[in-house]
Amino acid sequence: MSKIRTYIGEIANAVKMVIKGLGLSGKHLRKGLKPNEPLGIESDRYFDQNQGPITIQYPAVRIPVPDTGRYRLHMETEDCIGCDKCARVCPVDCITIETFRADGDLGKTSDGTIKRLHLPVFDIDMGKCMYCGLCTTVCPTECLIMTKVYDFSEFDRDNLVYHFGAYSPEQEDKIREETLVALAKKKADKTPKQKPKKRARPVMKRKPVKPIESTEEKKEGDDDA
Amino acid sequence: MWELLLGESGPLIYTMEFPPQILQILILLGFIAAYALGAVYAERKVSAYIQDRLGPMEVGPYGLLQTAADIVKLLFKENIIPAAADRKLFVIAPIIIFTSIFAGYAVIPLGPSMVGASLNIGLLYLMAAVSVDVIGLIMAGWGSNNKYAYLGGLRAVSQIISYEIPAAIALLTAVMMFGTLNLSELSIFQGFHSPEKVFFFGVWDVTEYGGVLSWSIFRYPHLLIAYLIYFIASLAECNRSPFDLPEAESELVSGFHVEYSGFRFAVIFMAEYANMFLVGILAAVVFLGAWNTPFPNFIAIDPKTAAEMSIGELFGNWQLGYLTSGTAGTWGFALWGAFWIILKAFFAVFVQMWIRWTLPRVRVDQLLKISWKVLTPVAFVLFIISGIWKLLEVYGHLQ
Fold it and tell me: What global pTM score does this model have?
């Protein structure tokens, strides 16, 4: 009798399980007909969409990225004073900066800092960048920022190097030449009037070094022995 | 073209006069190929929605042309025959697999009078023809000379032996009630044109109400369980999950057809989907009222009176059954019938897909247990119930 009960119980259990499973997958099937909207984290309903297909048909449909997204670097060339801080702080050395001295001031940046250096080369290799954001933190004029552009893959690796330098190579040669000429002229004008001053230097007095017999070393030596 | 031999009343044997027989075969082949494309697409969509994905979306609107693109790709691929394979068996196997399934369609009424061969032994022929399929499977498994394919072939055989029995007994349960193996006759018995009176649950005369009330699963309620048994067994017959042991992807890569590529693979694939449709349509014919409409009339009016009524009058009298099955002997009747039976078969195919993406695969021992310890005894019990019911009917103790 108990065997028959087990037999029927097993069948009933199996039927119950199958119906439950079909109900669950049927629920998903039903929800599947209404795809989710591509909502960004800024939307109030972002956490409400917990049912239905989660696929985003990427290039056609994109989830909005907040304006504060930290992806591709961007540099405002006009605001850069060429201080080289960003290149130094970069952990992966993806920023290359070349500057040369300008003849006088080159104007002011948008926050009022005076620009004194020409900036022929300011290259950022986004292929190397690790998106740590240190360069944007150290930038004194806040000309280097991270943007919300994240899809910028290229077929040629060289295209990942972004050139933010102020001049094209031809312009650069011309400006460099002009500046050198102007500077040389100024120097020539100034040199006879100026006397080279001796700069004051701090004098270091060295103390004689005494040979100190450390007691601790001795003790250690004893232990070894 | 189609000649509709639909008499006024009484037992009707629907025959089809459609001169070039080869054309019928080509139309059916085209239909099955088109259906297989659609079914593969549907399978991918159903699985995607169940798994919270979108499925194919890129090729054509909503990815509708994805399977067409796939089949073009398959046709252009190289037909690889492994060097160590048994060349003859390897080449013949896909042909046998598809032909045996396709042969089954010969006796299927795809609508009133739309039947290739209205055989007296239609159901027996169908069961026999479809069983040949497994010979193709084992030829593919053995001929590939691959351990996975071999295991898949072995499993296919052990499975078919287990599952043919409950499937056949479940079908016989219904056949016993109607007393015919002719699938066209079985169809007629379940609708308005039934030569006998139709009794809902064996007590309520619903001959003129028709619709879902006159389907065999409602005329004889024990056939509902028989239908479930046949459905479960048919899953195993078409090697569908949860009984897809012969092609268990996770264990046997893809089982018996692991070595097939290109066109031969496409043929095996098409055969699998054709088989799903075939068992769906057979279940519809035997249990779900064949090509008869599911809508009943709400007021009983006999077919002769109804045939003279206009559509407006039929609608006014709530004659949904007559409205959705057309007047006997017209094109509308044939097309409504084809529509309903194909819809029923598609529903069965959809449920097969739904089950595939819900249930995990059973082990071999579980499969044998389900077959021999559950389905077979229950099918036999139903078989006996059918016999007793029929005896009571004959001796007039019922009705």
Answer: 0.78
